[in-house]
């Protein structure tokens, strides 16, 4: 949700203001401010999609989100290749610039972000439970890992080639400048809108196991979650409200990734599995 706010309403987390899509189209108004845009997105996109009680109900939105991520990738790769061919991209710095002890320790701030990428398995059990043939889970996981790895590796490579040392914490904020190619403004908007829509459709997939596990933590002896409408509604509303407030007050996605990677990701990826094995 933080990235959606950055893309649609703009961000100033890096010190300089980067205009969002709505601000670029219509100028700065109260109705395209971050809080209002996220409120409308929460009420009319997130809330309806979060009402599904089975994860297979989100199969079509999930497929569409993958397609939108591929659109973002294709446009980014195309822009980078065009600029490489016309010689307008300088060779990016391949190694970190370590000049003192402070810059050396700063390298380790990337570790929590990288660790976060290793906890993408929280939906596996829900998907496995709803598959008609449970033996399909291994091909499903392999396909998902291959597709996601390809998309994100190529995005990082071509995104860094395109923007070099100017690459921001949220690379989508870089797409508010003149790219130096024909139809630059149109391509910028296509990249940001497609990825914002991708994130909106991904949200309920990530939200589903969060709600399910929180219910299991708070009400371990209660009747099945999908049969308790009141409990389902209260937990859903509480979580969405908390996420909405966090997206408005956390200044940068980098801060969110660092906190998650240093706490939840370490526990889910390393401590809890080891504890279960020892037990």
Automatic annotation (TrEMBL):
Principal location: membrane
Transmembrane segments: 31-52, 64-84, 104-124, 144-163, 193-212, 232-250, 256-278
Lipid bilayer topology: Multi-pass membrane protein
Protein localization: Membrane
A Gene Ontology term for the protein's cellular component: organelle membrane
UniProt keyword terms in alphabetical order: Amino-acid transport, Membrane, Transmembrane, Transmembrane helix, Transport
InterPro entries (alphabetical): AA_transpt_TM
Molecular-function annotations in GO: L-amino acid transmembrane transporter activity
Taxonomic superkingdom: Eukaryota
Domain Amino acid transporter transmembrane: 1-278
PANTHER family: AMINO ACID TRANSPORTER, AMINO ACID TRANSPORTER AVT6A
The protein's name: AMINO ACID TRANSPORTER
Organism of provenance: Salix koriyanagi
